[in-house]
Design brief:
230 residues; Rhomboid-like fold
């Protein structure tokens, strides 16, 4: 299932969400400008688990922490950044609307950090750099799921060789998304954690972080639609 848009209006301009999208696009354009040197950027600013573990063991906290942040704004290709930004554009504005601008930024970054931490915990000896906003965005999806489970999401559903467009509750769209991540993560445990080029456990970690953090971060006003609105 591929979401196209949701039918869930916001009350405020999502300036932080827009800023994050612009920052990701700007970094990606810079990557493209570096040509064949982009691989060295991945090793320098992406999350290489074994390098992070080594830096922590040597108390080089700055060296360990920097890639946890910088990797969130790097992407491996057009499809990678396109898919991530589509999800962030559709679901991030409503989460920011409920959390407030500053709390949304902190929430987003924390989800990304926890996502990377779980990936490193699962595959501490990996020498493969991981990049992308997927972990942080997974947290945003979890926040949306909890606060707006009944919100309608216009979704493309492949049916054999045809594409069907339908409006589905966010609970179905995002719940299905997480199930795919979870089972893919279980399968990946038999090999590389980032098998197939996807750090599944970063997605799982970000989503679980979002579930745990969104309610403490949420403003006191109850959501219009959600589990917490009778």
């Amino acid at each position: 299932m591929i979401p196209l848009r949701d039918r869930n209006p916001t009350q405020h301009t999502p300036v932080v969400n827009i800023g994050i999208i612009v920052a990701n696009i700007a970094v990606f354009l810079y990557q493209l400008s570096r040509g064949t040197e982009v691989e060295s950027l991945f090793f320098q600013f992406g999350v290489v688990p074994i390098d992070v573990v080594t830096a922590i063991s040597q108390y080089e906290l700055g060296t360990a922490i920097l890639p946890l942040f910088s990797s969130m704004f790097m992407h491996g290709g057009w499809l990678h950044i396109g898919g991530n930004m589509l999800y962030l554009w559709i679901f991030g504005d409503n989460v920011e609307d409920r959390l407030g601008h500053f709390r949304y930024l902190v929430f987003y970054l924390l989800c990304g950090l926890i996502a990377s931490a779980l990936h490193i915990l699962i595959e501490p000896a990996s020498e493969v750099p991981t990049v992308g906003a997927s972990g942080a965005i997974s947290g945003v999806l979890a926040g949306y799921l909890l606060m707006f489970p009944k919100a309608r999401v216009v979704t493309v559903i492949p049916v054999f060789m045809f594409l069907q467009i339908a409006e589905l509750p966010a609970l179905i769209v995002l719940g299905f998304w997480f199930v795919i991540q979870f089972f893919s993560g279980l399968v990946s445990l038999s090999g590389e954690a980032a098998a197939g080029g996807v750090a599944w456990w970063a997605h799982i970690g970000g989503f679980l972080a979002g579930l745990a953090l969104v309610i403490p971060f949420r403003k006191s006003k109850p959501p219009t639609v959600g589990f917490f609105n009778p």
